Amino acid sequence: MASLDDPGEVREGFLCPLCLKDLQSFYHLQSHYEEEHSGEDGDVKGQIKSAVRSHLSDFKKHRAARIDHYVVEVNKLIIRLEKLTAFDRTNTESAKIRAIEKSVVPWVNDQDVPFCPDCGNKFSIRNRRHHCRLCGSIMCKKCMELISLPLANKLTSASKDSLSPHTSPSQSPNSVHGSRRASISSVSSVSSVLDEKDDDRIRCCTHCKDTLLKREQQIDEKEHTPDIVKLYEKLRLCMEKVDQKAPEYIRMAASLNAGETTYSLEHASDLRVEVQKVYELIDALSKKILTLDLKQDPPPHPNTLRLQRMIRYSATLFVQEKLLGLMSLPTKEQFEELKEKRKQEVERKKILERRATLESQQRLEERRSDLVSHATNGEVVSLRGGPAPLRKAEGWLPLSGGQGQIEDSDPLLQQIHNITSFIRQAKAAGRMDEVRTLQENLRQLQDEYDQQQTEKAIELSRRQAEEEDLQREQLQMLREREREREREQFQAASLHMRTRSLDFREIRPFQLEPGREPRNHLAHALDLGCSPAPSSAAPKTPSPSLALEPIRVWSGPPALGQEFFPQSTTSQHNEVPSLNPFDEEDLSSPAAEGTASPPAAEPSLGPPACVLKEYNPFEEEEEEEAVAGNPFTSPDSPAPSPFDEEDGHPHQRPSGPPVPGNPFEEAPCTNPFEVDSESGQEGEEPIEEELLLQQIDNIKAYIFDAKQCGRLDEVEVLTENLRELKHTLAKQKGGAD
Amino acid sequence: MNVVFAVKQYISKMIEDSGPGMKVLLMDKETTGIVSMVYTQSEILQKEVYLFERIDSQNREIMKHLKAICFLRPTKENVNYLIQELRRPKYSIYFIYFSNVISKSDVKSLAEADEQEVVAEVQEFYGDYIAVNPHLFSLNILGCCQGRNWDPVQLSRATQGLTALLLSLKKCPMIRYQLSSEAAKRLAECVKQVITKEYELFEFRRTEVPPLLLILDRCDDAITPLLNQWTYQAMVHELLGINNNRIDLSRVPGISKDLREVVLSAENDEFYANNMYLNFAEIGSNIKNLMEDFQKKKPKEQQKLESIADMKAFVENYPQFKKMSGTVSKHVTVVGELSRLVSERNLLEVSEVEQELACQNDHSSALQNVKRLLQSPKVTEFDAARLVMLYALHYERHSSNSLPGLMMDLRNKGVSEKYRKLVSTVVEYGGKRVRGSDLFSPKDAVAITKQFLKGLKGVENVYTQHQPFLHETLDHLIKGKLKENLYPYLGPSTLRDRPQDIIVFIIGGATYEEALTVYNLNRTTPGVRIVLGGTTVHNTKSFLEEVLASGLHSRSKDSSQVTSRLASRR
Fold first, then answer.
1. Which domains are present in chain B?
2. In Å, what is the CA distance from B217 to each residue of B470, B485, B487, B495, B533?
3. I need a surface site. Which of A276, A584, B136, B457 has the fewest CB within 10 A?
């Protein structure tokens, strides 16, 4: 392709028209085209390659003939119905009604029909003849149908409003009974007259009624748009938006990350925020679809539920697929450096072309030094209030991932080193206020480190007590479930899901449904899936390490005394998501929450429920929104900065502590509707925590997932991660104190 | 000439044509299989198809907010279901696609049922076959023949499948068939008939060299489906069985729940696509590489995620990692099970003797080896029976044929009567008397020299020395040397040039070994594109079922068979 940029070159030979590869011979070219591009050329040619044949015109011709007949039939009935209901039936004598009815459609002669045409029974004095008021045919009483006036009105006015009855049903026909008897005029039709007067309904045959009912159904459907359709349309709109914007953003980000100056950084970050908001919306909408009508009393048809799950699943797939491709942006400082580097590199390339080996070495060195200065600069700026808007763009450089901990494996130690160096630099720059802040940070960090060491020791002893913990945990579970069962007996169906969510073992089948079941279903229905998921009946053995995890974490801090407060707040926060799955729609029944969380079970039960809350990582994100407004902030969170999955900032890691004051970081992860209102410094810290929480939840989801798939080694690794994360969180809270 | 692509294009087209909105795909049993071979669940979800329903399922809810795409075979049954559906429509609008030619009267009765005007499209999309590989298709018909002649139902299905294939590839071919097979001739005539009748459909842009349809009969080569296979796809089918890309692993000891049934599809499994034609040894090393690759990506206990950055990177990569781990565990399980079966059933040794029986002509050594293996307790009755079948087929007319002795050995080994009877049935099915060409002894000087040289050099791989007879047939066909007296043209016109686009159809089922042969021919012969099809794709087990279903019996009933055959030929 490089040769293409060179305008001077003209290529000839057996070139592939699509990729311009020289294939040497006709045969090679043909086979190359078949192999490489056979999938593409459908679009190239703009039309299907294979043969088709349409029968539509034929079909329409036949249908038109039929439809004409059908429509005429229906219209005829409706017109007659209109005539039959046009006058006030209640206040009209039955003789007169009969006259009108007979004028609408000629009645079939009684003598012509000795047997009921529908059931074949012979007519007699007991089995009398009835006339259809709409077509005039005769049937017996058993085969007779009635059309109520409201229905008639609805059909004639073709509007739902007319469902409210015109004539009040209280006006009973009894009052006119006498007159009807008097109106007997012919012996032959005596049978038809002996019943009550039809002042609120119209007699007809099954065929006419059938036709009219079909018509009614059509009317109904025309007017009714189910909620799912409305939500779904919104969802699709969002997806289209992403499809439009995401490639644009990726182009920008790629260009910016390469140090090019084609696009402006601000523009790109705006776009990023915009795209991420749309993702949030997609997630929220699809979740709403998932839980639509779930608590309705008769429960929706399984197919409806399947549809909802599939929509949710595909939205999840969509978000997963696209979101992961959304690379991050460099900060302004990084960007400057990137630009600089690119310039340098271009120059260097020219100079050092012949010394390739030397160059590679040099670059390595350069990069290392770059890294240090990056981190430093990023740090200093983030402390200042001013240029905050840019910081939201802080991104990870590809090289920054592994190199951070060359010196120290412990992030805290590393942080301490970093901060020390920042202080030095800040001093050199004469920024005393920053030095102060940094020193404060340093102090906290050191505290933190000590604390961590202590905790490690505690951790060791914990491990010995693990068996015990597990038993306790299980006991609690059992007790909880016992309580659960009692509660379930008198709780309404709509509440029971929520209640259950407290007991993570119980909830599993439910949790599995959204993510997993669709796959299952499909695998059965279509066998398309790659590998069918296991049935949702999860094994009842939560790995001990997992079950213990929260306890270990929560029991750590009290030993240290100082962290008691943050612990309890967190457990409360965790509880919100644990109750969550249906929280959004379930505002109507707050009572359940109260009953569902007996205080005794609270601290220990919250976290585990949360662990298994959802297997879908994207569900977590949303649930976290509930936590977004977290008032428990950690102003100088000494722990490494939380890492937001969507919005990776590798540079924050080494430069963790002072990061909090960044108003833009929250944008990708908060509720899209909250973002705009939150611009002050106040709202920022909770976000950090939220990110952390979110991450924890993500990892928990992965653990759950991995466990479901029986990959125990992964579970272990993830559990390890989780523990570390929780430490971080706990520490952050400690810092807030 | 890519059948997977052809079918996929049809499906994509019907989904696209229905426009935006939630969709349900209404299918019958067969079209469900057809669709599932070319589309994955997530792919089709992206196109807003959220539900998949069978037209014959009674438990469907009215969902007027869905559009229905109906992809159905044009059977009487389906038309009736559709008529009922249209009378009381469950969905807002119907896009109807038949997988084959539908009669005008059926269209009329459908039109008359559509009183609510819900039908927006009625088309024929000729995706009426199972696209297994890009160059391999199947009709999933097991037991296509009664005696030596077609089961009339299956004949019509095969005709439909083949004509649909031709239409989907836009080919209006010249037809050649195997003279020795009555069934081949019959099918060729039926296909020709359809082409003549639907000449409008078959009016494609003329290519310089017209495409060629070659119809063969399995009974000309009963050896290939009896051999153990050593390339991945073929081996999996032989030992585990592939059914519409799905593999049932539920009988594997200690299998985990989510691996009970796995899907092997070259369309969305890169590892499989790259390895399906490689032999077992190569797969072993590739699996190892895959594992190592996986291990590298996977954070180990030792290199714990020490910083949040590591963790973040890990979590970000997790979905990919998970996907990969799914692939790894799937293939590791499958290959593990294969090697377990290989050692448990002593298949290396069995296969070596099989290959000797199939490819060499040393009777005494072959007999000795078969006898030796029949004594081995590790050899299953199934493998023992197939060894004897191979022997019986090869040395059917050999002067010192000792089949009775081997049958005694089988009996002594405790092989069930079913298998023992099958030996003579297989000979009846594919013995010398039925074969149109000689399967074993080389026919011309070149071939004799080749084999001689081969004998001198020794073979590179004893387990894969066998070349299906199809290879020779196609080789001759490509070189323009395929004898017209054995494979005549249907109709007066003949092909003067070397053929370029070739469609081979094997009545009685193709095999994955033959698919591999075709794959290699496509690769190595520039300008020639071959598509292979069969009434089904066999492994030994299904082939024996096919033989059994054909109703041929051992020689005692031979005479009656011959007379009935004559009678049916008339």
1. 3-126 (3.40.50.2060), 132-221+468-550 (3.40.50.1910), 232-345 (3.90.830.10)
2. 11, 16, 11, 22, 12
3. B457
Any CB–CB contact under 8 A between B232 and chain A?
Answer: no
Q: Checking DSSP bridges between strand B93-98 and strand B119-125, what pairing results, if any? A: parallel
Q: How far apart are the C-alpha atoms of B125 and A67, rounded to whole Å?
A: 27
Q: Is A527 on the interface with B (CB under 8 A)?
A: yes
Q: At what angle do helices A332-351 and A356-383 cross, to 10 degrees?
A: 160
Is pLDDT of A624 > 50? no
pLDDT digits (tens, 9 = 90+) for B423-464: 989 988 888 877 766 667 655 555 556 665 555 555 567 788
Q: Is the Cβ–Cβ distance between B245 and B237 less than 8 Å?
A: no
**pLDDT class for A734, splitting at 50, 70, 90?**
low
> How much is the average pLDDT of A23-39?
64
Is A350 within 8 Å of chain B by CB?
no
> How close are the terminal C-alpha atoms of chain B, in Å?
38
- Kind and range of the H or E run holding B533: strand B529-534
* For A30, nearest residue in chain B (alpha carbons): B527
For residues B157, B162, B165 and B171, what is the CA-based torsion angle, rounded to 10 degrees? Answer: -150
CA distance A300 to A55: 37
How many Å apart are CA B169 and CA B535, to the nearest integer? 18
Q: In the Cβ-directed half-sphere of A318, how many Cα atoms lie within 13 Å? A: 29
Total-model pTM: 0.63
Question: Under a CB-based contact definition with an 8 Å cutoff, are residues B25 and B32 in contact?
Answer: no
Q: In chain A, what are the domain boundaries?
A: 63-159+199-223, 227-330
Give the nearest chain A residue to B118 (CA atoms). A63
Query: Under an 8 A CB cutoff, do A535 and B257 touch?
Result: yes
The CATH fold assigned to A227-330 is Methane Monooxygenase Hydroxylase; Chain G, domain 1 (1.20.58)
Q: Give me the pLDDT at residue A173, please.
A: 39
Q: Are strands B501-507 and B529-534 parallel, antiparallel or unpaired?
A: parallel
Neighbour-count burial of A417, counting CB atoms closer than 10 A to its CB (0-12 exposed, 13-18 middle, 19+ buried): middle
Q: Which residue has the tokens 């197919």?
A: A303
Is residue B243 within 8 Å of B541, Cβ to Cβ?
Answer: no
- Phi and psi at residue B317, to the nearest 5°: -85, -5
First-last CA distance in chain A? 60
Q: Pairing state of beta strands B212-217 and B501-507?
A: parallel
Strands in B67-72's sheet, in edge-to-edge order, are A52-54, B119-125, B93-98, B67-72, B23-27, B49-54
Q: Tokens in use for B432?
A: 């010398």
**CA A581 – CA B119 distance, rounded (Å):** 40
A50/B169 CB distance under 8 A: yes
Three-state DSSP at B445 gives helix
Q: Which two tokens stand for residue A651?
A: 């540079």
Rounded CA separation B104/B110 (Å): 10
**A526 vs B: CB within 8 A:** yes
Contact A718, A699 (CB under 8 A): yes
Q: How distant, in Å, are the alpha carbons of A135, A316, B421, B555, B568 from that of B182?
A: 63, 56, 25, 20, 10
Q: Do A695 and A645 contact (CB within 8 A), yes or no?
A: yes
> Does residue B314 sit at the A interface (CB-CB below 8 Å)?
yes
ipTM tops the 0.90 cut: no
Least Cα separation, residue B141 to chain A (angstroms): 19
Which tokens sit at A678?
């939150």
CATH code for the part of the protein at A63-159+199-223: 3.30.40.10
How many other CB atoms sit within 10 Å of the CB of residue A123?
A: 18
